[in-house]
Structures are given as structure tokens and as C-alpha cells.
Amino acid sequence: MKPSAWKLSIRSLLAIGVGSVLYGATSWIGIPIVPDTELRPAIGLLTLFGALFGPVVGFLVGFIGHVINDLITSGTVWWDWALGSGIAAAFMGLIYLSRDFDPHNGIMKKSHLVRLSIFGVIGIFASHTFSGLFDTLVMGEPNDTTVVQSISAGLANVAVFLILGLPAVWAYANRIRQGARVS
């Protein structure tokens, strides 16, 4: 039986710590696509931690990791975008709630991959909509700038999610299925 997604255990706390540091430290790696927006491979880490540990761990990894990255790269935290990273990872973590999904024991079906894809794409665009609206309505950023950033970052994140994130979760479950199971 897999651990609850709602209770923070030693294992989930370690996942939050490791995931946040990894996400924060690797989020600076990116390919510029529009001003202040990049294609970031680190989005794949949000997929992995969300799917493997659930929405709470996913949210905290995304949020804390984004804060770490902002502090490292600019010294200024964009709280709305940090919340957005958490929101996206929490949506990706919704797959963990499926009763028959247990990648730690090698249990992942193609139907899980489809559901994870849907949750992830919805989560990415929900998070970018939130962050873009927050930038416009609260921070006073120009609407045309935030729309371009939100859409381009959303499309870039979906691409990374589909190309790196989904295969990483699938590969993890397959590796466990072929080898020893994790308790």
C-alpha cells in the first residue's frame, strides 16, 4: 500500500527537501523564448516529484524550489510565479491519488499516463493563468506582456512536461517493475 498523499512523513519531507533544491538549482538552466521567459528542463522534475509523492509534495517542491531559484538568480522572489510552479506540480501530483497507480511498486498503466498528461497540461495553464492575472491585476505589469509570457511559458512547459516529465515517471515505474520493488 502506498503512503498517504496528505500526511507528511520522513520520506515525503526528504522528497520536498531534495526536490526543492534540485528544482531551484536547475531552474536557471533554460533557453530564452521571449523576454523573461525560458524553456526550462527543470519542469520535468516537478512532474517526477508530483507524480511520485502526490499533490502536497509536488506543490511544496514547486513553490520552495521556485523561491530558491528566484533568490539565487535575482535576489527577488516573484511570489505569484512561485505559487504557479507549486500549482502546476500539485496538478501533476493528482495522478498519485489514483488507487491503482503506484510507481514505487512498478504499477503504472497507459491510462495513468493519459490522466497524468491531462492533469499536467491543465495544471500548467491554470498556474500560468493565475500568475499572469496576478502580475496584471496586483503587480501592475502590462497586460500584453503577461499574456505573451503566460502563453509562451505555458507552451514551453507543456513541451518539457510531455518530452521529459512523462517519460521520467514511466521509466521510473518500468525500472521498478523490472527490478526490486520499493516499500
Description:
- The chain is built from six helices and two strands, in the order H-E-E-H-H-H-H-H.
- The protein is mainly alpha-helical and about 180 residues long.
- A two-stranded antiparallel ribbon has the order 1-2.
- A hairpin with a 2-residue loop joins strand 1 (about 30-35) and strand 2 (about 35-40).
- The radius of gyration is 16 Å and the shape is globular.
- The model has no long low-confidence stretch (mean pLDDT about 95).
- Keywords: Membrane, Transmembrane, Transmembrane helix.
- It comes from Paenibacillus puldeungensis.
- It holds the Pfam family ECF-ribofla_trS.
The overall number of domains is: 1
Tell me the series of helices and strands, N- to C-terminal. Answer: HEEHHHHH
Using only C-alpha atoms, the radius of gyration works out to: 16 Å
Q: Major sheet: size, sense and barrel closure? A: 2 strands, antiparallel
Using the 3D structure, state the CATH architecture: Orthogonal Bundle
| Percent range of helical residues | 55-70%
| DSSP E strands, number | 2
* Strand order, sheet with most strands: 1-2
What's the quaternary structure here? single chain
Q: Mean pLDDT, rounded to whole units?
A: 93
Task: Label the structural class.
Answer: mainly alpha
Low-confidence runs of at least 5 consecutive residues:
none
Beta-strand percent range: under 5%
Tally of helical runs: 6
Q: How far apart, in Å, are the first and last alpha carbons?
A: 8 Å
**Apparent shape:** globular
CATH class: Mainly Alpha
Q: Under CATH, the topology is which? A: Arp2/3 complex 21 kDa subunit ARPC3
InterPro entries: ECF_substrate-spec-like
Transmembrane segments: 12-31, 43-65, 77-97, 118-139, 151-173
Organism: Paenibacillus puldeungensis
Protein name: ECF-type riboflavin transporter substrate-binding protein
